[in-house]
Automatic annotation (TrEMBL):
Gene3D superfamilies: Medium-chain alcohol dehydrogenases, catalytic domain, NAD(P)-binding Rossmann-like Domain. Residues 21-294 form the Enoyl reductase (ER) domain. This is NADP-dependent oxidoreductase. It comes from Actinomadura meridiana. The keyword Oxidoreductase applies. Pfam families: ADH_N_2 (PF16884), ADH_zinc_N (PF00107).
Length: 296
């Protein structure tokens, strides 16, 4: 099927794939002269006669980073008008919700810590934690401006800043009684701090490793961290690596929340494919807030 792309997602894992990839990861490494790829939303230009799709219909596929894509049979998903903004199909909303509701099992009254709160997952995680009944939600980020936006716009009660005082000290002040849930998009010293402040029986969902992926001193293919296993055992902390589980009804659920205003879609739109490399560079540098989308 020939598709004219309208949007594609610039996501941090591109850095890892350029660096050589990770064994057993779902995506192949990128070599010199390869075309980059990623989630995209496009309009059908022409489709096989044995499909129900017609020119102008919208589909989701993985051949982003190009204006037109020849998408092999079976590698697209037809979209409807479930979401008020088609670009929201490129968000990490489902990952954020699944990490909280399924993996970390947020309960009413929980204190939740989200690392990378201003990123694609984190910008939804604070909002969903509220919907699920969390009593207090704390996020981490890298700039005072982003910290203010977390609190003012996305339902966070407090934000801790990396690169200033130790994260563990800031987290202890923001959550004096400790934390029950972690949604970790970063790893590194922020994961260590969460273990230190975890209450007995805490549930940790490990979603991303931005500390390794975006490190200026590494290839982005490893994310080593030294943790105190004694604390994991003594506190009965549950660590679970996120594994996607697509929900066929997800778009309808998210669309309802977006239309009601219960949830917002924090994102940055970069106009024009010629500006996509800059968008990737800025994403790696931590400039943007929320999901980064190139609009064609």
């Amino acid at each position: 099927m020939l598709v004219r792309n309208r949007f594609f997602h610039v996501f941090p894992s591109i850095r890892t794939l350029i660096g050589g990839g990770v064994k057993d990861a779902p995506f192949p490494p990128l070599r010199p002269d390869d075309t980059l790829f990623g989630p995209a939303i496009g309009e059908v230009v022409s489709a096989p006669s044995d499909t129900d799709l017609r020119p102008g219909d919208l589909v989701h596929h993985w051949l982003g980073w190009r204006e037109y894509a020849a998408v092999p049979a079976g590698q697209w998903t037809a979209l409807d008008d479930s979401l008020p903004d088609p670009a929201a199909h490129l968000s990490y909303a489902e990952a954020a919700y699944t990490a909280l509701a399924r993996d970390a099992r947020v309960r009413p009254g929980d204190t939740v810590f989200v690392t990378g709160g201003a990123g694609g997952v984190g910008s939804f995680a604070g909002q969903f934690a509220r919907l699920l009944g969390a009593k207090r939600v704390i996020g981490s980020t890298g700039s005072p401006d982003k910290a203010k936006r977390l609190v003012d716009e996305l339902g966070y009660d407090a934000a801790v800043l990396r690169g200033t005082r130790p994260i563990a000290d800031q987290l202890a002040e923001a959550a004096p009684d400790g934390i029950d849930v972690l949604v970790d998009n970063v790893g590194g010293d922020q994961l260590r701090a969460a273990i230190t402040l975890a209450r007995p029986g805490s549930r940790f969902s490990l979603v991303g490793v931005l500390a390794g992926q975006l490190s200026p001193d590494d290839t982005g293919t490893t994310a080593p961290v030294e943790i105190d296993v004694f604390q994991l055992i003594a506190k009965g902390i549950e660590l679970r690596g996120y594994q996607g589980a697509p929900d066929p009804e997800w778009a309808t659920r998210l669309g309802g929340w977006l239309r009601s205003g219960e949830i917002v879609f924090p994102h940055v739109r970069v106009a024009g494919i010629e500006n996509a490399p800059r968008a990737l560079h800025e994403l790696i540098g931590g400039k943007h807030f929320g999901t980064v989308v190139v609009e064609l």
